[in-house]
Amino acid sequence: MNLEHILGIQVLFLGGVTFGYHSSKMDSENLFRILLLVARFVICLLTSQALELACATIYTSVKTRQLPEIRFKEKFKVSLYVLVSSIGLLVYHNLPLIGEEFVLLLIASAGVRYLEAKRQFATITYGEGMACSFAEGYLYQVIP
């Protein structure tokens, strides 16, 4: 099962939980209010991802002392469509794009991503493995 299937199942599950929780008072107005809240949170999460990408680009350009090559990647096309449609939905209904929780959600998202980055293990390349094998299997035994 790939990640798309897992995330699709997660969305269906959480949608079912939300629908079940609000089933006693589920009318079109309440459903539409939930849709607008989801649109606002989508804007927040996609902004968080864009901010992370921008910070990584700036960090890399400062570290390498080269200007970044800015070009639109095809893999961001769907995210851009979702962001624009969410913004359009909120603007059409004269609702604010960001609320007071926006910055707090960005901070929480960055904190969770930081913890996730700390949890990832470093990968060892084939060359590093060969060097370690040479050092531990030969040099450490021959040199003494």
Could you characterize what this model shows?
- This protein is mainly alpha-helical.
- The chain has one domain (about 25-140).
- The protein has 5 helices and no strands.
- It is elongated and about 80 Å long.
- The mean pLDDT is about 85.
Write the layout of secondary structure elements.
Blueprint: H1 3-21, H2 28-64, H3 77-92, H4 102-119, H5 126-142
Specify the overall morphology. elongated
- Please state roughly what percent of the residues sit in beta strands, choosing from under 5%, 5-15%, 15-25%, 25-35%, 35-45% or over 45%: under 5%
What summary fits the major beta sheet?
A: none
SSE string, helices as H and strands as E: HHHHH
User: How many DSSP H or I helices?
Assistant: 5
Helical coverage, percent range? over 70%
**Number of structural domains:** 1
Overall SS class: mainly alpha
Stretches where pLDDT is under 50 for at least 5 consecutive residues are: none
Q: Taking Cα atoms only, what radius of gyration do you get, to the nearest Å?
A: 23 Å
Distance between the termini: 51 Å
Number of strands: 0
Write down the overall mean pLDDT.
83
